[in-house]
Design a protein that fits this description.
Number of helices: 22
Strand order of the largest sheet: 3-2-1-4-5-6
Radius of gyration: 27 Å
Shape: elongated
Distance between the termini: 78 Å
Structural class: alpha/beta
Length: 589
C-alpha cells in the first residue's frame, strides 16, 4: 500500500472508533454494540480499513501491547483489601472452574458442530475462556449492580484475560509442534509462563514505585512513565516467553494499586482517555479483518455454541462457584448471566488463527469468524438484557442518594439527622476529634480514614456514595476540596458559599454552584442554629411554612436535589423537603 492509503486507512479507523463511541453515548447503549458492526461493515465495504494490510506483520504485536496497557489499567482497580471472605472464594472458583469447564465443553462441541479438527477446536475453546474487563466494565457501569457483584465480575474479567492468553499460547505451540503432551507437561509450561509474567510485572512495579515516589512528575508525565514501563516490561516478557506480557501488565497494575506510599488518583483522565481510544481502535480494527465470506458457513454453528456457553456452561459455573457461600440467589443468577467475550479473545484469535491456517490445520480458518460471532452475540445479548435481568433479580444498586457530608458542626449534624429522617443513607466525615464524637453521639455513620479515601470509595464499606456536601467552617478548604473531588467521584460535589466576596484566599474564585441561597453561609447557619433554628424534614404536599427556608428536596425515588445559588428545585406533592426552621417565635428572617 502507498503512504497515502496507509494514512487514509489509519485516519478512518480512528474516526470510526471515536464516532462509534460518541454514537453509543448518545443512544445510551454500551459502545461495543456499535463498534463491532461498524468495524465489520467498514472492512466489508472497503479495503482501506484493513489493519493487516495497513500494518502488516506489526499488527499482531501492536495488538498485544495495546491489550497490555488495557489490562494494566484494569489492574489498577484491583485492591486486595476489597477481595475478602466469600468474595475471594467466588472469584477463585470462577477462574479455575470457568477455565476448565469452558475449555472442555467448547472443544467437544466445536468438533462436530463447527466441523473442526480437535486441534482447531481446542484452540477455539482456549480463546473463548476469557471474558475481559474491557467488556464487563462498561456493561456493569451501564447496569450498576450491587457493589459486591461488580467487584466479583471485574476481578474475574481482569484475571481471566492473562490466564486465557497464556492458555491460548500453550495450545497454539502444542498444535504447531504436533505434540500431545501430558497434563504434567502442560502444567509445568503454564507455571513457567506465569512465573515469567509475575516476576516481570513485580520488577516493573518496583521501578515504577521508585520513580513515582522519588521523582516529582506532573499527571501527564506520570501517566506517560507508567505506559512506557508497561509496554517495556510486556515486550521483554513476551520476548522471553509468548503472551506472558499480559500477566506482567495485570501484576503491575495490581501492585501499583496495593503498594504503600503511593497516592494514585482514583480517576486518571489521561490514561482513561488513552484506554478508551485504544479499545475503540482495537475493536474496529479486528472486526474489520472478518470478511462476509468467512462467516457464510459459520454463523449458525457459532450461534449454537453461544447458546451452549450462555444457557448451560456459564450458569453451571456460576452456581458451582457460589456453592456454600453467602452470595444470595439473585446475585448467583446474575453472575451466571454475565460472561461476554471481549478484546483479548479477538486479539488472540486474530494472532493465532492465520498461522494455524498456514500450517494446514483443519478448521483453523473458522477460528476467527467463530470468535467474532461469539463476541458479537454475547455482547449484544448481555448488553441488551443485563439491565432488565438485574432489575428482575433485584440486584441493582438502590436509586436512593447516599450523600457524604463533610464537617461536624452542630448544625451540620442536625442537617444530617434531617436527611436521615427523610429516608436517606447518610455518611459523614470530620477531621476534629470533637466533631467525630458529635457525629457518633447522634448515631450517624462515620467514614473512617482520610477525606479523599472516604469520598472516592477507597474502602469497600464506602462504595455507593452519590455526592459530597462540603460543610466545614473553613471556606478555602471547602473550595479546594470541591475542585479536587469533582475529578474523583461520579456524583455532584457542593460546598457552602463564602460569607463575602473577599473572604478567604480561593473560596470566592472557584467555580461550581454553592449550596443554599439567601446568604446561608457557614457562619450564618451556625448563628441561626445557636439561636434555635433547626433542620426539619416534612412532606411537601402542604407547602412551605412561613419563615422556613428550603434547603433540599428529596424525590420519591430517594434522589437528593439541593438548593444552590443558581437554582431552586420546585417541590412536587409527593416529595419530602428539608427545611431550615426558624427559632421558636420567629416567623420570618
Amino acid at each position: 500500500m502507498t503512504a497515502d492509503q496507509v494514512l487514509v486507512g489509519i485516519g478512518l479507523i480512528v474516526v470510526l472508533a471515536v464516532g462509534s463511541q460518541l454514537l453509543a453515548s448518545r443512544l445510551r447503549v454500551p459502545a461495543l454494540l456499535v463498534l463491532l458492526p461498524v468495524g465489520f461493515t467498514a472492512g466489508a465495504l472497503t479495503d482501506t480499513v484493513n489493519p493487516e494490510r495497513l500494518l502488516g506483520a506489526a499488527f499482531s504485536p501492536l495488538v498485544s501491547l495495546a491489550v497490555a496497557v488495557i489490562l494494566y489499567d484494569a489492574g489498577l482497580g484491583l485492591e486486595l483489601r476489597r477481595l475478602t471472605g466469600h468474595t475471594r472464594r467466588v472469584v477463585i472458583r470462577l477462574l479455575w472452574l470457568g477455565t476448565l469447564l469452558t475449555l472442555v465443553s467448547a472443544a467437544l462441541f466445536a468438533v462436530p458442530v463447527l466441523d473442526m479438527s480437535m486441534a482447531a477446536a481446542v484452540m477455539l475453546a482456549a480463546i473463548l475462556v476469557v471474558s475481559g474487563p474491557t467488556v464487563v466494565g462498561p456493561l456493569l457501569n451501564f447496569v450498576r449492580p450491587t457493589e459486591r457483584l461488580q467487584r466479583v465480575l471485574i476481578w474475574e474479567g481482569s484475571l481471566i484475560d492473562p490466564v486465557g492468553g497464556i492458555l491460548g499460547a500453550l495450545v497454539f505451540h502444542a498444535v504447531l509442534a504436533g505434540e500431545r503432551p501430558g497434563f504434567g507437561h502442560q502444567l509445568g509450561e503454564f507455571a513457567a509462563s506465569t512465573a515469567v509474567g509475575a516476576v516481570g510485572g513485580a520488577a516493573g512495579a518496583g521501578v515504577l514505585w521508585l520513580l513515582l515516589r522519588r521523582v516529582r512528575l506532573s499527571e501527564e508525565l506520570a501517566t506517560s512513565v507508567q505506559i512506557a514501563a508497561v509496554i517495556g516490561v510486556a515486550t521483554a516478557c513476551d520476548a522471553l516467553r509468548d503472551d506472558t506480557g499480559l500477566i506482567s501488565a495485570v501484576v503491575m497494575g495490581m501492585a501499583m494499586a496495593n503498594l504503600p506510599g503511593l497516592d494514585l488518583p482514583v480517576r486518571r483522565p489521561f490514561l482513561d482517555t488513552l484506554v478508551s481510544l485504544t479499545i475503540g481502535l482495537l475493536f474496529v480494527s479486528i472486526s474489520a479483518t472478518v470478511t462476509p465470506a468467512s462467516l457464510r458457513h459459520v454463523v449458525l454453528p457459532s450461534l449454537a455454541l453461544v447458546a451452549l456457553l450462555v444457557l448451560v456452561i456459564r450458569p453451571l459455573i456460576a452456581h458451582l462457584s457460589t456453592l456454600r457461600t453467602d452470595v444470595p440467589r439473585g446475585e448467583r443468577w446474575f453472575i451466571g448471566w454475565m460472561a461476554p467475550r471481549g478484546i483479548v479473545a479477538a486479539a488472540t484469535a486474530s494472532t493465532f488463527s492465520a498461522e494455524l491456517v498456514g500450517k494446514g490445520i483443519a478448521g483453523a480458518d473458522r477460528i476467527l469468524p467463530a470468535t467474532f460471532v461469539v463476541i458479537v452475540a454475547t455482547v449484544m445479548l448481555y448488553g441488551l438484557t443485563a439491565f432488565p435481568v438485574a432489575k428482575r433479580l433485584g440486584v441493582l444498586r438502590p436509586a436512593r442518594s447516599r450523600p457524604l457530608l463533610v464537617g461536624g458542626a452542630p448544625w451540620a449534624v442536625d442537617l444530617a439527622c434531617a436527611l436521615r429522617s427523610a429516608g436517606l443513607d447518610v455518611l459523614m466525615w470530620a477531621g476534629a476529634d470533637r466533631e467525630r464524637a458529635r457525629i457518633e453521639e447522634a448515631g450517624l455513620k462515620l467514614a473512617p480514614g482520610e477525606l479523599l479515601a472516604s469520598a472516592t470509595g477507597a474502602g469497600a464499606e464506602l462504595e455507593g456514595i452519590t455526592g459530597v456536601l462540603l460543610l466545614t467552617g473553613e471556606d478555602d478548604f471547602n473550595a479546594l476540596a470541591s475542585t479536587t473531588l469533582r475529578e474523583s467521584i461520579e456524583g455532584p460535589v457542593h460546598r457552602l458559599a463564602a460569607p463575602t466576596a473577599s473572604h478567604g484566599v480561593v473560596a470566592p474564585y472557584t467555580g461550581g454552584e454553592a449550596l443554599f441561597g439567601g446568604g446561608l453561609s457557614g457562619p450564618e447557619l451556625s448563628r441561626r442554629y445557636a439561636a434555635g433554628a433547626r433542620a426539619v424534614a416534612q412532606p411537601a404536599g402542604g407547602g412551605l411554612p412561613s419563615g422556613h427556608e428550603l434547603l433540599f428536596v428529596v424525590r420519591p425515588d430517594g434522589r437528593l436535589v439541593p438548593v444552590t445559588d443558581a437554582r431552586t428545585p420546585a417541590p412536587e406533592p409527593d416529595d419530602t423537603v428539608i427545611l431550615l426552621r426558624p427559632p421558636t417565635g420567629v416567623l420570618t428572617r
